[in-house]
Specification:
- Responsible for the release of ribosomes from messenger RNA at the termination of protein biosynthesis. May increase the efficiency of translation by recycling ribosomes from one round of translation to another.
- Keywords: Cytoplasm, Protein biosynthesis.
- InterPro entries: Ribosome_recyc_fac, Ribosome_recyc_fac_dom, RRF_sf.
- With about 170 residues, the chain is an alpha+beta fold.
- About 60% of the residues lie in helices and about 15% in strands.
- It contains six helices and six strands; from the N terminus they run αββαββαββααα.
- A four-stranded antiparallel beta sheet has the order 3-4-6-5.
- α1 runs antiparallel to α4 and α4 packs antiparallel against α6.
- The chain is elongated, with a radius of gyration of 21 Å.
- The two termini are about 35 Å apart.
- The relative contact order is 0.16.
- The model has no long low-confidence stretch (mean pLDDT about 85).
Length: about 170
C-alpha cells in the first residue's frame, strides 16, 4: 500500500504545473540506439529559471533523439529546441482549460492508485479468510478491522496528495 501511495505521488509529479520541474521528465523514454532508455540516464537536467529546463546530454549523438522523445511525450505540451550542445525546454503558460484537463488527469491517476490499494486490501482479506480455520474467527475479524484502518489511512494519503496537486495546478 505504501508503494501504491509513492507511485501515485510520482505520477502526480509528472504532470506539469506551469513551472519547469525535472520530475516531469521522469517517464520520458528516449530511443537510444534502438533501446528505450530513461532520460535521466542519458542527460543531466537543470532548472535555471522557473519555466525553463536545460537538458545536457552525456552523449551529443543522442541530442536529436532526446528532443524527439520530449516532443512525442503526451501531456507535456512543450516544444524543445537544441543548439547543438543542449536541449532547452521552455514551458508555455497554462491556460485555464489546460489546467482543468490536468486536474482531470490527476484525479484519474489518484483513482488508479486507490484501486491498487483496494486490490491489495482484497488480496489480504482473502488470505485472512483462508486462515480462518487456523487462527479463529475473532483474530480474522480483528485482522480485517486493522486492514480496513490501514486501507483508509493509505487512501487518505492519496487524497491528500491529490488535493495538494490540484491546488498547485489551479494556482495562477
Amino acid at each position: 500500500m505504501e508503494r501504491a501511495v509513492e507511485a501515485a505521488k510520482e505520477d502526480f509529479a509528472t504532470v506539469r504545473t506551469g513551472r519547469a520541474n525535472p520530475q516531469m521528465f521522469q517517464k520520458v523514454l528516449v530511443d537510444y540506439y534502438g533501446t528505450p532508455t530513461p532520460l535521466q540516464q542519458l542527460a543531466a537536467l537543470a532548472n535555471p529559471e522557473a519555466r525553463t529546463l536545460v537538458i545536457t546530454p552525456y552523449d551529443k549523438s543522442a541530442l536529436s533523439a532526446i528532443e524527439q522523445a520530449i516532443r512525442d511525450m503526451p501531456n507535456l505540451g512543450v516544444n524543445p529546441s537544441n543548439d547543438g550542445n543542449i536541449v532547452r525546454v521552455t514551458m508555455p503558460e497554462l491556460t485555464e482549460e489546460r489546467r482543468k484537463e490536468y486536474v482531470k488527469l490527476v484525479k484519474g491517476k489518484a483513482e488508479d492508485a486507490r484501486v491498487r490499494v483496494r486490490g491489495i486490501r482484497r488480496q489480504v482479506k482473502d488470505d485472512l479468510t483462508a486462515l480462518k480455520d487456523e487462527i479463529g474467527e475473532d483474530d480474522v475479524a480483528r485482522g480485517e478491522k486493522d486492514l480496513d484502518a490501514l486501507t483508509k489511512k493509505h487512501v487518505d494519503l492519496i487524497d491528500a496528495a491529490l488535493v495538494a496537486k490540484e491546488a498547485e495546478l489551479l494556482e495562477v
